[in-house]
Each structure stands twice: as C-alpha cells, then as structure tokens.
Design a protein that fits this description.
The complex is a heterodimer of chains A (about 150) and B (about 700). By secondary structure, chain A is mainly alpha-helical. In chain A, about 60% of the residues lie in helices and about 0% in strands. Chain A has 2 domains: about 1-85, Orthogonal Bundle (Helicase, Ruva Protein, domain 3); about 95-150. Helices cover about 60% and strands about 10% of the residues of chain B. Chain B folds into 4 domains: about 1-170, no CATH class; about 180-425, no CATH class; about 430-515, no CATH class; about 540-645, no CATH class. Chain B has 20 helices and 10 strands. In chain B, a hairpin with a 2-residue loop joins strand 2 (about 555-560) and strand 3. The chains are: A mainly alpha (about 150), B alpha+beta (about 700).
Chain lengths: ~150, ~700
C-alpha cells in the first residue's frame, strides 16, 4: 500500500515538473485573470470593443511584463498597483482577500462534518429505538402503509 | 391638459388590483383567524367571508391583466406620452420587440412579475377544491406578496408615469442587447421560475401556520415546484445561450451578479426537489425542507434586489434604481414571518423516522443537499464579497470567473459523482452485495473511459498552464461515463424484469417501465441531461481562439477550419446601420458554409452590438465575431473561436426539459394479473 502511495506521489511530482512553460498558454492564463480597465467588465483577453481605450495597451503591458521575467503573481500585483484591485478577476492580494477563498471551503468543510455528525446521531438514536412491530400485529396497517410508501418508487 | 385614456386605464387597473389584493390579504386573514379550530379541510376553509377573499384574488388577476394590456397597447401604439414607452421603444422597432419592451425596463418587468404572480394565484384559487383550507392559507400569503409588488407599482415605480412636456415624435429605443429572439423568451421564462416559487413557498408557510397534518401539501405542490423549476432552468439556459450568441466574447456564463442571482434559487430549488422525497417517503427532514423552500423564495427576492438596487456592479444595470430599499424591507419582513411561524410551530416538524445507515438513499440526498447548498453559498459569497471587501478594506474587488471556477469545479464534480451513485443506493440501507452488483459496471466504464481519454491525448501533465482545466475535463468525462452507465443499467435492469413479466421486447419493456413510474425514470432522464451538460462544459478546456485582420481573399485558420474573406460591406435600415464580412468556411478543401459576422449600430439608442456568426456541430462550434474595422487599414478585424462540445450543453438542457416533462406525466395504472395480498373484507370496505 505504501509503495502505491509513493508511486502516486511520483506521478504527481512528475506532472508538476512537466508543467510546460509555453509562453502562449501562460499569456492566455494570466490574461484571463484580469479584467479590462475600460469598464466593460469583461476579461482582458475577451474585451472585444474595437477602439477600446485600454485593452490594447494593457495587453502590450502584459507582454512586456512577461518578457521581463516576472512571475504570474508579481505581474498581477503590478497590474493591481497600477489600475487598482478591481483589475484582478479574483482577489489574490493576500490579507482580507484570502477570506474570499477560505470562507466557501470552511463552510463546505464544516457542513460536511455537521452532516456526518447528524447522520451519526440519527443512527445512534435509531439503534436505541425499540424494534418496530411486525405486520399483522395491532400496528400492522400502519406498517403496511409505511412499506407501501417506501417502496413506491 | 392632454387626456391619456390608456395610461389612465392602466393606472386605475393597478390601483384596483392593489385594492383587491389588500382585500384578499386582510379579509382572507380575518376569515382564517375566525375559523381556526372549527374548520376542516373540506368545509369551505374560511366560510363565506373567505370565499369573498378568494373571489377578490381571482378578480385581481383580471385587473392586473388589464394593466399589463394597457402597457403593451401603449408600446404598440407608440404612445410616447408614457415615460416608460418613450425610454424603451421606438417607432421602427420590430413588433416582437415592442412586446418584449414590457420587461425591458424596471417598471415593465415589475408589471410582468405582478401579472405572473396574479396568474399563478388565479390558477391556485380556481383549483381550491384540492384542499380548500390549505389553499385559503396559500391564497392569503400570495396576496401578501402581491400587495408588496403592487405597492411598488403604484407608489415607487409607476409604469404609466406621464412624460412632462410635449409628446416626443419617437422613442429612445430598446437596448440593442435585448433585440434578439431569445430575449423575447428568456425574461418571461426566468420570471415564471422566480415568481413560481412563491406558490410552494405559500403552501409551505400555510401548511406550517395551520399545522397541516401529513405530507399532502407536498403532493399538492410537487407539480407546481417541478414546473417552476423547469421554467427557471429554461430561463437560465436561454439567458446563457443569449449571452453566447449576442455578447460576442465566446462564453455563455460570466458569473455576473444577476446571473448568479438566478442560479442561487435554482440550486436551493433543486435541493428541495430532492430532499422533499425524504419527507414524502419517510417523514424526515421536515424542518430542513420548510427552510429550503423559504430560502428559495427569499433568494428570488434577493435576486430581484441585486438587479434593482445597484449594490453590486452588473451588466444588467438597465434596471437599477432606488427601489432596493423596498426589497430590503420586504426580505426582512418575510424572514421575520418565516422565523416566527417556524418557532411557533416547531413541534409540528418532528421527524417520523431516523436515518438507519450511512450507505442509503437518504444519506445520498443529505450529501446532495450539502453540495447544492455549498454551491449556493459560494455563489452568494462571491456575489456579495465585493461589498464586504469595500466595507472592510475600503476597496472593491472583482469576483470573476477564476474565483467561481476554482471554487465551484470541485463541488460540481462531487455533485456529478452523487448523481451517479445516489439512485443506486436503496432506501434505509444498502447491502454490500447490492453495492457490489450495482457499482461494478459503472466502475468498469469509468476505468475504460479513463484509459481511452489518456490514450487520445487528454493528459493534464502535458497540458502546460492549462493542466487544471484539462484535469477537470478528464475527471468529468470519466465520471460521466460511470454515471451514464449507471443510469443505463438501471433502465436495463428494470426493463429486463418487465420483459420477463410481459414477454414484450426490450424497447417496449423500457417504455412500459418508464410509464409505470414516470417520476423515477423521468428523474433518471434529468440526471442524464445534467451529465450531458457537464460533458459540454468540460469541453471548454479545449477552446481555441484566433484574431486576425481580414481583407478580400485573406485566409485565417483555426483547428480544422479555414476561413476565407469573400467580401466586407455595410448596409442600413430604419432601425440600425450594419457592417459585416462574408467568410467562406472550408474543412480541408471542401467548402462547408458561409458565415456573416455582423456589427450593428442602432440609431435610436446610439449604441452598437455584435451579431455572432455560428457554425455549430456536435463536435464543436465555429464562432466568429466581427469586431470592427481597423481605422488605419479600414479592414475588418475578425475573431474566431473554436468551442468543442458546446452543443452538448444545449442538448443536455433539452434532455433535462424532456425528463422533467416525463416526471410530470401521471403513472400508468398498473393492471396486475392477480392480487398479491388478500385484503380482509372489512378493510376493503373502508377503502371503497
């Protein structure tokens, strides 16, 4: 079992190492993490207004930043510093921005634990209940009705 | 002083509708209060006084119809004395769009909302004999909602306000983005969905108020809820198709706050449709279900608030105004009433049964609800976080597609997984043997699909920066193979039993099986449609695009397509000027079609819009946009997208619609050859 985990880990490591640095896909990725500053609300590389006062300049700036060797994060921070935080298509500046990412995961995690606990409580209570009466006993009609309802579909 | 007979008639109708709704609410409420403890389900609910309230409710539909008619009439007759008509139509507007002007602005869309609510109320009050007292409660609650919307229409956003000064000769026109065939259908469908959730809400609240015994109210509202859910589904996806075809950015879902507002009640409504089965069958989850439908209704109001108030930035800014305050008040009031009723009647919602096993249909429904509500919370959080950020940090942030995609994709995949395994689990408890038997085929299908996909090139580790999207696609396609196999196996297993019983062939047995239990197998068809949609969404990982300036005879290539520019020109009509290019599309050496992407400039509104040219196949969409002319060269700039599996999304929606219709069809009455259980004579007498 341990060997399989090691093998799986190696595959993951290789996958990370083999992540290509294809400049066109990287440009595409970073360009899709920003919003055009013209106010149209569209992703930078999808802003399709001819004569847009901002998109062409921003795309050139993106090319320049990538040629300058910056990391994705540093490039995005550069744009955020120049155009304001709203230029980023998602909050990534750290600090309170992290709350945006943590909260949904925390809620999901807590809800999963809560559901698990709920199921556990229900099962415990069910186990403590006295066995239900068999069909044919005074409660038989109710039991038959329950069986009909529960096996209908 | 000019006379404006039709606007005055409309205004009077609105006032009359308000008076009738107030009567239904107040007198209906008094009648129910006076009859408490004495009335039974079939004695007329609330007596003669209650009957007058019911009839007033029916009449309010007539009054509301007159108001809606007056507004449509004003649009068709170019009555620019009415401010709303002046701002949302013009003389040269196509007839269908003159009709759609009814919901193109704030006041008109509120008229549509109130009219649909009156129409739902009309049907409910006409069918009151299904359960007179419960319907009387629901009717009174619906009247309360109607009073709120009619107060808005009469005092805050009057649709028949007269434009001061001389009457204009022409209007300012309809927003060009709304001048598209789907926009004639999308808003009414969406509103039918939004408003429709008022009905199950009213029944749920009414049932709780009157401590309605048993689960009959769920049976009564099942069809209402499903039809409403269907309308909302169609409305959402028609909007997505409109965005894809009109906005010209190559996508169909931009996670705009208003799009999100429509998705949230859909998610909670879907959760309700699932969890309500636990209440019907096992008397469980009563509190949960009541709050799910309360939340769904409140989310529809929140969606309207987001559209109207301008608290979040949205492309749907056409409807922004100050009436948001009214909606804040209404949401607080509704929440207060729900909370008060819940605490007052809490003991009525005790579960009849407990969960017996973790591996059961019940727990799969629980997790299904958990996932759907987690998705709903994520969407709500993403929509409101910019407001929170501004409050805490002093700066707004953008919550765009990267946020929603990263957070919601794992949730979506988990949901897809549950779609497959949920129906394979038995109620109460599933044995290990049953799990082994039911899961072996889907597991093999997933294994085969995974190998085939990797062999055909879906390799996240070789996708560079796109590895996340490719990984998502790989997992989606693999899970989809498993879920489709599981659904097919369920049909086959059932059909084999029917075939053994009846001797019919497999196809006839499958049809008979489906007709015998339309709800169950309709549900499976809906699940199949959802899987097909997921496949289409996963295709987005392989999107390609290319932008090029194209003069006469210039060629652009993308994927297996070659586009040659035949000509580019411009034209004009009374409504708009247009520029377009004619592009011959070749696949190899064979010409397959000609596309004409277009850019229009509308005279009345002085705004432009794109008309996308589309060549759609099952494998991919060739999506071409005319972006405009390069001012330096005077040649058109063409942007081409190749969107794989796009059609699968729309086909998936069609399957979902078909499945929902199937689930709404009553079951075929079973004619058994012999009675399996002999019923004692006296018991049989009771059932006659």
């Amino acid at each position: 079992m341990f060997r399989r985990w090691v093998q799986a880990g190696m595959v993951c490591l290789l996958a990370v190492v083999m992540l290509g640095a294809d400049p066109s896909t990287r440009f595409n990725k970073v360009g899709h993490e920003m919003i055009c500053a013209c106010g149209c609300g569209q992703v930078l590389l999808e802003c399709n207004h001819v004569g847009c006062p901002d998109s062409a300049r921003m795309i050139n700036e993106l090319h320049a930043q990538m040629d300058g060797g910056g990391t994705d994060t540093s490039i995005l921070n550069w744009f955020a510093a120049k155009y304001g935080a709203t230029v980023l298509a998602a909050p990534i500046r750290g600090g309170f921005d992290d709350v945006a990412w943590i909260a949904p995961m925390a809620v999901f995690f807590l809800a999963t634990i809560g559901t698990g606990l709920l199921i556990r409580v229900w099962r415990t209570r069910y186990a403590q209940q006295t066995p239900v009466k068999a069909a044919g006993s005074p409660g038989g009609d109710a039991m038959r009705e329950r069986i009909r309802r529960e096996t209908e579909y | 002083m000019h006379s404006h007979p039709m606007p005055e008639f409309g205004s009077f109708s609105l006032l009359l509708a308000l008076a009738l709704s107030v009567y239904t609410l107040v007198v209906g409420g008094i009648a129910l209060w006076r009859s408490r403890g004495t009335a039974t389900a079939h004695d007329g609910g609330a007596g003669r006084l209650g009957e007058t309230a019911r009839r007033a409710g029916i009449s309010s539909f007539v009054a509301m119809s007159c108001a809606a008619f007056a507004l449509v009439w004003a649009s068709f007759t170019n009555d620019y004395s009415v401010s709303y008509i002046l701002h949302h139509t013009n003389r040269d507007l196509n007839t269908a769009y003159k009709f759609s002007a009814l919901w193109s602005g704030q006041e008109g869309s509120l008229v549509l909302w109130a009219w649909l609510l009156a129409a739902y109320g009309f049907v409910l009050r006409m069918r009151h004999r299904v359960d007179v007292r419960l319907t009387a409660f629901a009717s009174t609650i619906l009247a309360g909602i109607q009073v709120f919307f009619l107060m808005l229409l009469n005092f805050a956003a009057p649709p028949f306000a007269i434009q001061p000064g001389p009457v204009a000769t022409d209007g300012f026109g309809l927003n060009p983005l709304l001048q598209y065939p789907e926009m004639v259908m999308h808003p009414p469908l969406l509103y039918l969905g939004y408003v429709g959730f008022s009905v199950p809400f009213a029944f749920a609240l009414g049932a709780l108020m009157m401590r309605y015994p048993g689960e009959k109210w769920i049976h009564i509202t099942r069809r209402w809820t499903m039809v409403t859910w269907l309308f909302l589904t169609c409305g959402i996806f028609m909007g997505a198709h409109w965005a894809y075809s009109v906005l010209g950015w190559g996508g169909y879902w931009g996670w705009d706050p208003v799009e999100n507002a429509s998705l949230m009640p859909w998610l909670t409504g879907t959760a309700f449709l699932h969890s309500v089965m636990m209440q019907e069958k096992r008397g469980m989850m009563k509190t949960w279900n009541v709050w799910l439908i309360f939340s769904t209704f409140m989310l529809t109001i929140l969606g309207t608030l987001l559209t109207r108030s301008g608290i979040v930035s949205s492309v749907h800014a056409f409807a922004q105004s100050s009436i948001g305050d009214w909606f804040y008040g209404f949401i607080v009031l509704v929440f207060g009433i729900c909370l008060f009723t819940f605490f007052k009647q809490k003991d009525h919602l005790k579960s009849e049964n407990k969960l017996e096993s973790l591996v059961s249909r019940e727990s799969s429904f629980l997790f299904n609800n958990l996932i759907l509500l987690a998705a709903c919370f994520t969407v709500l959080w993403g929509t409101l976080f910019p407001v929170l950020s501004e409050y805490v940090q002093g700066t707004k942030v953008t919550m765009g597609a990267p946020f929603y995609n990263r957070v919601n994709l794992p949730i979506g995949l988990f949901l897809l997984f549950l779609t497959g395994i949920g129906p394979l689990l038995a109620w109460r408890s599933t044995s290990l043997k049953s799990i082994r038997r039911n899961f072996i085929l889907p597991s093999i299908a997933m294994g085969v699909a995974l190998v085939v996909l990797i062999a055909t090139g879906v390799r996240p580790w070789a996708a560079g920066d796109d590895w996340q999207a490719t990984l998502f696609s790989l997992v989606t396609f693999t899970l989809a193979a498993g879920v489709i196999t599981a659904i097919s196996a369920e049909f086959l297993r059932g059909a084999s039993v029917v075939r053994t019983q009846t001797g019919k062939n497999l196809v006839a047995s499958t049809i008979l099986l489906t007709r015998r239990n339309t709800r169950r197998y309709g549900g499976y068809v809906v699940h199949f449609g959802i899987v097909v949609m997921f496949i289409g969404i996963a295709g987005g990982a392989f999107n390609q695009n290319h932008e090029q300036e194209m003069g006469f005879g210039d060629t652009a290539r993308l994927g297996q397509y070659r586009l040659v520019c035949q000509s580019y020109t411009q034209d004009s009509n009374a409504n708009y000027d247009t520029e377009y290019a004619l592009l011959d599309v070749y696949k190899g050496s064979k010409k397959i079609t000609q596309l004409a992407p277009e850019k229009r400039f509308y005279h009345a509104s002085q705004t432009s819009s794109t008309m996308v040219a589309l060549h759609s196949t099952l494998a991919s969409d060739l999506y071409v946009i005319y972006e405009g002319k390069n001012p330096d060269t005077d040649r058109p700039i063409i942007k081409i997208f190749l969107n794989p599996l796009m059609n699968w999304i729309w086909i998936g929606v069609a399957i979902v619609v078909a499945g929902t219709f199937l689930a709404l069809v009553p079951n075929l009455t079973r004619t058994t050859a012999r009675v399996a259980v002999q019923v004692p004579e006296e018991a049989a007498v009771h059932h006659v």
